[in-house]
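Readers of this paper often ask what the protein records in our data store actually look like. This encoding replaces a full spatial description with a residue-level series of whole-number codes. For reference, a complete record is included directly beneath this paragraph.
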Amino acid sequence: MATRKLLLWFEKRRRSKTLSLAQQQIALAMSTVEELDMAIRAFSDGRRDEMEDAVTRLFADEVELDKLRRAVLEELVDKKLPATYREDLKRLIHHLDEFADQVKDSARSLKILGWPQFPKEIMAQYLKMSEDLVVAVKMLGDCIEALGTMPFQVGKLAEQVNFQEDRIDEEYLKTKMLFMKYGGELDPAMLMALRDLLDFMEQASDTCARTADYLRTLAASEIR
């Protein structure tokens, strides 16, 4: 049975300002992914102004994410927090920062792509990946919330994130195969931009899954 000291330690971590800031980070990360999804859907429909507006909001969210990251790092200077806890949160923030950069790079690639004509079958794959990435990051948010309240649930939630990452990997491969299928219709510059967008979205998915796995590790240390 857990000792009173251990129960108090759990309670302290739940109220931790750094964990709260990390939850704010994932909330903003979710917002950037939703904006990316809206931008890709607007791009698919030829709604240029809506795409540009979504990308602008995404970039603004990313600036706020940088501010939150700095705020967390300042909190981690507090020597009252155990060294192991500070290191755990620092690594978590690093994962979230990496994820946000990859989402931002995806949006940049979309802007660079311009408005070319290419097969709808390829566009459909980007729409699927974008939708699955939105679901994955929402599940990641559930993981972070559970870490502070129900660490026993984190493993199950992390599995759901990994399931979404597997789906995106399959869609990534299918899209690569479509590049080969339609290679004669895609000029080199267009293909490069499409590939960059695809790669950044897939990398964001991988980072999302790695972050979920790391949260699973943190949760496991809580319940031992």
